[in-house]
Design brief:
- The chain crosses the membrane at residues 33-53, 65-82, 94-117.
- Keywords: Membrane, Transmembrane, Transmembrane helix.
- The model has no long low-confidence stretch (mean pLDDT 84).
- Helix 1 (2-17) packs antiparallel against helix 3, helix 3 packs antiparallel against helix 4 and helix 4 packs antiparallel against helix 5.
- This protein is 72% helix and 0% strand.
- It has one domain (2-116).
- It has helices spanning 2-17, 19-24, 32-55, 58-81, 91-117.
- It is mostly helical.
Length: 135
């Protein structure tokens, strides 16, 4: 999870800091603002993965993992739906597929591992909060 988070964070920083040159080589029509927005999105997921690895609290990161699954699915669906607008001969198209597939895979793995290792509590009625003793 840490390696994937670091790669996504670095990719997001690159997209944020150099949107103009990257937009010129984007595999579909994109303006620098579009690339910068994707960079912010990618940096957010990278930071979330790094913080989730540091946190080591599986129950608290399930929502983020579900968001990664949904983002990967929606992105891949968009590429399939509008594939005729994508320049598939450019490496950027396949990098986009790789990043979206990685988001989907990391999200599925993280959600699955969290559900197996730290299943939801069934002993508390909905809305009740678990009391924790301090000291």
């Amino acid at each position: 999870m840490t390696g994937g988070g670091a790669l996504l964070a670095l990719l997001g920083l690159a997209l944020l800091l150099a949107p103009g040159p990257l937009a010129a080589h984007w595999p579909w029509t994109a303006r620098p603002l579009d690339v910068r927005a994707l960079g912010a999105w990618t940096l957010t997921f990278g930071a979330a993965l790094l913080l989730a690895a540091r946190e080591s609290e599986l129950r608290r990161v399930r929502g983020g993992m579900a968001a990664m699954v949904l983002t990967g699915l929606l992105g891949l669906t968009g590429l399939a739906r509008y594939g005729d607008l994508v320049a598939w001969r450019q490496p950027g198209a396949w990098i986009a597929v790789l990043v979206l597939t990685a988001l989907l895979g990391l999200g599925l793995c993280g959600y699955g591992v969290s559900a197996v290792l730290d299943p939801p509590r069934r002993d508390l009625p909905p809305g009740d909060v678990e009391e924790v003793e301090l000291g």
